Fold these 4 entries.
Entry 1:
Amino acid sequence: YHFHRADVAIAASYRSYGIGQEGHGYRWQLGEQRIGLEVFKFLFDYNGFMPFIGLSLGTAHQRFEARDSEASGEHGTVGESAWSPAFGLVFGWDIRPSASDWFYLRTNLRLFWTGGSGVQAFDLRNRHLEVNFIQMVIYPERIAKLKHIHP
């Protein structure tokens, strides 16, 4: 949600990603899901280029699984998962041709830290940097208002 007069935004974020490898009867996977709430303030408007900075608070679920297809019984699969808090800094910029357009282009970066126990197989309790290069931000309320202006 964007508070127009204060030029402050509140956003929910969800990200899920994973990596893994498989070969010679052995497979491992490492994944993480994050959900958070972000609050950020736009700093100034430089001809439609609008940088912002804010805070993020959420949680991260990390999981690790390794499977050896040649091993039998309980030795064949090893897994671990953990929940931990995640907090950080979000910053970036919007490209806004005008203040009333129904969409903007946004680039944001998130520098965040996860705490708690984490998955011990891989130490994920450190800081991470995410880059979302170009996102399209759509304001459905503004689309509805356009229909009333231009029938």
Note: The mean pLDDT is 84.
Entry 2:
Amino acid sequence: MYSALRGRDLLSIADLSRDDIEAILDHAAELKAGRARPRPLDGRNLGMIFQRPSNRTRVSFEVAIQQLGGHPIPIFSQEIQLGQRESTADVARILDRYLDGIVARLHFQTDLESIAANAAAPVVSAMTDAEHPCQILADLLTVREHAGDGATVTYIGDGNNVCSSWIYAAAILGLELRLVIPEGYEPRPQVARRARQLGLAEIRTWPVNTALEGTDVVYTDVWTSMGQEDEHERRRQDFSELQVNSALLQMAPPTARVMHCLPAHRGEEITDDVLDGPQSIVFDQAENRLHVQKAILSLIYAP
């Protein structure tokens, strides 16, 4: 088995090479097909820190750890009070004495990096304000399954953590990623700098009709993420022309597939008829979180 990920943290898509990503996707496909049944976590305990609410992330990681032979230990925000009851560094040092690894879904990337710096065991990002690497790896598997290698992906929405991870993945893999983002909601400047280091010449935004011409995938996300609730009405107005509905979808080829990382605010960024329609692969995408996370953990803990 490809072993370059053995013992490593996964804090950002940008930390991965093309070979790393392809190894994860290849192994995820094997696991999904039942061609491999590894148990690298036998006798191991993994902590799962959740500062943010979670459905798919918690359940998929907990099932993944169990299916790989491990014991998942969920740790919630009110219990750990990261950075309040104890410093982030102290929490990491203590957990590192008990656990064989940490999966962390946190508010801030800086806290994730502090945990990784103070823990010898592997640390895996389950989302922060900056990135959502496991989501995008699952998305890449879904795109590969439904549109093949070399697909064109059109991302419509906010330049948020999901968008940032997509940009890094596109830079590493050479994918065509078309961004349809309202002015003022572009990704952070440091994302553009990192993407250039990874080989992406520029982050370009497209008019929606041009972006959808010939695209293979139409991808959207919520307009208002957790922690942005006070901006909800302003965002509804600023993004109102970018709702993924049947009229917008007609600008894309009939073969285009629709993706959403969920949870969806039905009737805002996407309509029911599209989310539940024949072009939607949203629930295949959600299922692939499990297979990709199993692959990541299998490769990190490979014997």
Note: Residues 14 and 168 are 6 Å apart (CA to CA).
Entry 3:
Amino acid sequence: MYRLELQGVGKRYGRLHVFRDLVAEVEIGQVLVVAGRNGSGKSTLLRIIAGLARPTWGQVLFYRDGRLLSPEERRRQIGLVAVDVSLYGELTGWENLAFFARLHGRPLTPKEGEGLLKEVGLAGRGDDLVQNYSSGMCQRLKYACALLHRPALLLLDEPGANLDEAGRAIVEEVIARQRRHGLVVLATNDVREVAYGDVVLRLGGGG
């Protein structure tokens, strides 16, 4: 049983308040949507939840079976798909997967790799260099890398970026599967993606 809580979370850069006093709670099977226009702080909030940035105020709490996980334990439970997640163009899709698997301290069998590539619509493309992938294919590979360790908490920043309708259908399937064993936090300004949310947190600031 997993539960994520945002307790009075705020972020300030100098005199600029990006957001403040954010409160939300979601548990296993649910999707938290962070909605707002560009510059409202959506990506910043996802980075705070991921432990990649510190809030100026408040705290992010993640529980498993009622036990509060440490920030390091929480990071091990996270899968992240975001624009600033880098892939290695000089490596193949399969080699990128194997690299990220090693970062998680686990081996990746060919069967697992092929299964992940098929899951995101890249079946048969694992031996191609990523530098020859389209932007949509790169986005799909980011999903495969994020799902390697079957994270309890899946963070998606603009999940439909660079994806066609077939790619968006895959995102819907990923979210549906994630609900069965974990939870999702999704940042978007796309009304279609806002509809995924069980809880919607709207950010109104700019900058």
Note: The longest helix spans residues 165-181.
Entry 4:
Amino acid sequence: MTIPELIFGTGYSLFAFFAAIGIVLFFAALLHVEQHFGHWAQPALIPIIALGICASSLLSGRSLQNAATDLSLGVDGDTGSGSLALRLLTLAILGICLARISGQWLRRQETKAAAGASLFWAFTAYFLAHSVLSSAFGTQPVFIHNIFYGVVVFAAVFAARHEPLSTTLSMAKIALFGMMFMSLLLAIIKPNLALEPGYKGWIPGLSVRLWGVGSNANSIGPLALVALLLEYMQPYQKRWLHWLVWLMTWAVFVLAQSKTVWGVFIVLLPMLMWHRMARPKQGVDIRLVLILIGLASSVFLLMLVFDPISLWEKFVDTKQGSQLTTLTGRSQIWAVAISEWLNNPLFGYGPEIWGPAFRAHIGMQFAFSAHNQFLQSLSSAGAVGLLSLIIYLGLLGRYAHRCAAATKGVAVAIYVLTLIRCMTETPLVLGTMFNGEFLIHILLFQIVVHDRSMSEQETVPSPSSAHSASLRTSAMRNGC
């Protein structure tokens, strides 16, 4: 062995030795923190993700004056100048989640079948199909470390499913309402960053569109709807605070002018009314019947007064109507998605489909995604990815339905929001943690995977509240 080889071998051995010590000490520190503050791991996730979304927008240096023509704006995951801040937040999330998973694994308190295990394994299969198999066997094999972070976060949520959910929902509300406040504040003090001018939407006289702290208007709009749903599910006790956040969030919901979200809201209204007023074991509230009769009567009266065919023809002649009937160019994107799937039917193109290089190759710089979750999965992960998506969505819907009574229908509402957006957007992509889609996805997963039976056993009601406790237990048995 020569002297240079000996020096290199010695240096490499010392580096490996100290690196191993560092990893052990870091892991020990994580376990120590988790032992004392582990119960805050799940509630802290949504606020940190929300902080990352805000940081990404605030530090991006974007200007929305030319938002209609600048294709680089409004892309989820574009970190801009905030990349260092987002890396630190990413490390914080991964550290918290790894500590929570490690602590739960070392304690091993469970002896029976894990609650929510089928949903978690369905998500794991979805992750493997879209992030591992497509990366290895896709048309363009690639390794992207970012797409592996999501499974760590979901595993930590699954590990914390026995912990009370009320604190998590309270922290999520604070984070979302903070985003609503910041969005409105930026619209006043820094409109170039938060308001898109010259927008022709469906509200007469309103020529601006609010992006706020979201990556785009179609990102902040769904977050506003989810914030409204959480306030409906778990309202603030102080009336002034309740109405303040209610009005503030409604303002963002309207100013974002997200047509898909408006349509989802119309669909959700009767669903929430049903869950609020219809009780299968006690009969149906007469108020619900009267409201439904009133709505049906109004629709028939409008059809008698106005000519629906004439109104549709006039609508098609408008810019918005033309965009709707032509699917705003999405049919071309969908054709490309199907073509790439046919090139590799089992595993698709790979995670880098719809990236900069792929868009340049197909000559469609505006195609940042397939604009359909099913076609996104098909094009990026092939038939294996599509099958995993269908199984995961099916189980997610089943768990959301089981939680309907316990969440006043909000779990089903967020699931329906996600499902409808799957038709026009890609709300289940795991490319980055710092966008609205990932926040809504992990929040829904937290709600539906929560083991409410364990929470009820840990709660000991006082004698003075025995009757109300029995009612809550009955509601939980009918829920998750």
Note: Strands lie at 195-196, 209-210, 278-279, 283-284.
